[in-house]
Write a structure and sequence with these properties.
CATH superfamily of the largest domain: Metallo-dependent phosphatases
Strand order of the largest sheet: 6-3-2-1-13-14
CATH topology of the largest domain: Purple Acid Phosphatase, chain A, domain 2
Bound molecules: manganese (II) ion
CATH class of the largest domain: Alpha Beta
Order of helices and strands: HEHEHEHEEHEHEEHEHEEEEEEHHEHE
Number of strands: 17
Helix content: 25-40%
Number of helices: 11
CATH architecture of the largest domain: 4-Layer Sandwich
Structural class: alpha/beta
Distance between the termini: 91 Å
Number of domains: 2
Shape: elongated
Strand content: 15-25%
Oligomer: single chain
Amino acid sequence: MTSANGTNIQSESIVKAQKAVTSLIKFIHASDIHLGSHQYRNEDRANDFISAFEEILTTAVIHQVDFILLGGDVFTSLEMLPGKLTRVVNLLNKFKNETDNRIKIVAIEGNHDIRKFSRGQRFKQRDQSWLKLLASLGLIILLDADVELAPDEIFKEYDFKTGKGGKIRIKDVIIYGTRYLGQNPEEYLSKLRDGIVRDDNLFHILLQHFGIEGQMAQVPGVNYQRIQILKDRVNYLALGHYHLQFILDDWIFNPGSSESACSSDFSFIRGIFLITVTNNENYTKCVKKIRLMNRTYRWETIYLKRELRSNENLYNYVIRKLKNIFDPIKNSDSGLRSIQIPVLFLVLKGMKPHHKCKINTKELTDLLIENLPVVDARIYQKFSNFLKTIDIFM
Ligand SMILES: [Mn+2]
């Protein structure tokens, strides 16, 4: 009996030792993919968002991760053109088949996933989202805990049959998640904390869609002190919402948007995180920041030195000037639609055109795309009524 016990103790310690070496968890944390962005305006740009998503999936395969976290705003709105949605579904099906369904995709709904101005009206939330569709097709795991329930009932185990639940365990990781909690997520923090079961043997992730105050100027977020309430229950707070990347205290992680969803995104540091967690007594994280192959961009400014009187004159002038600025060698490559072909941000300055000359930005954008190696253009009109402004000398 002693020897039997002895054997047991020995084998237990061997298992423990093996576990210490092999207990390695790898995951990718991405957010704010904004699928469907630009879909009505520019085909190339619309495809950029799907390409970014594809790159995330490919990266997951290359690094053989255990799962992918998506921190909300996976879709940019409730409106999605059938062709674009088909591409997304096909990508996910291919990913699932090629990985034998070994790499789970765990997502939550961000504010963009669940509401959107439609036909000039705010769409009343009716529990619909494209993520729910993907979950019902078995392509993703959508965590959507019901925060209105009592703390011990909030996080129900994810049910693959119904596609519903608030938590899921993958290896030694337990992932908790809720949809976007509205403008005041702070109200729910202590409730979320009480709903998370403390277990020192597991690595706890909480997936949320909100920012932290101060990380982005003038964008509301959760107070940093108030978020500390979660720290003894959560090993990794996985955020989405702010399109700018940040990491706080090796505990709060926000990867930023995957592709530039608006003009300011282009200048942000953004990307995805590849996390490796090892368990030797304590959990330790190794975080690798990965930049995605995003669309490039360039800013140009054109000064109008006199008052132009017709659209045609103005368009011709602008295009002629830009053709001189753009590298003539690159011009010859304009047949290509590679990711290196930039989005042009064009600032028009100088003398304000005659009132009969009304710039049609759509028309000018189309002309720019046609005549220059640019994939899309945004036009900013910063004219002055007075010619001798400081701009003219700059
Ligand atoms: Mn977003």
